[in-house]
Every structure is written in C-alpha cells, then in structure tokens.
Model the fold of this input.
Amino acid sequence: MAWALNILGEIALLEDNVTDSRKYYDDALNILTVSPCPTIAWKILIARGDLFKKLGDDTSSDECRGRARSLVKSLADSVADGKIRTTFLKSRIVESI
Done:
C-alpha cells in the first residue's frame, strides 16, 4: 500500500498538484511507521524531499534526504557480501542522495 501511495504522490507531483502529492507521501510514510520497510521508505523519503525542494523548502528537503541516507546506511550495513554492498552504494539512485 505504501508503494502505491508513493506512485500516486509521484503522479500528483507531475501534475503540479503538490497538496495531493504531499498527502500521498505522508500517508505512505505513516503506513511505514506501523509496518516498517526501509527498502521502500528511503525511496519515498527521496521523493518527498524532491517535493519540498520544488516548494523551496530546503530545510525539509535536507531532512528527508538525511533520513533516507540513514536508512540506506543501515541497509548497506546489513549486507554481509562486500561486492553486493558496494554495488548498492554505488547505484545511481543511492549516490544521488
């Protein structure tokens, strides 16, 4: 459900409907508070950060990206295979945050 809300948030943002976009991202993150899934949460946080950036709210954007970086670090630290860990950390989306 959280990922579906993320997609709706992305669609709303593409339609310049920032109010709905923010609501979808917030709802998605609220679901992940109850049922954590860091592999999804960090991507939603990046999208939410992009929304705040578009609104000119650099502080909130940086906060979202910081939370995403923290989740990515935790995920990477949980990978025992160094090659897989490096591949993950060198991926384009991870390096973008």
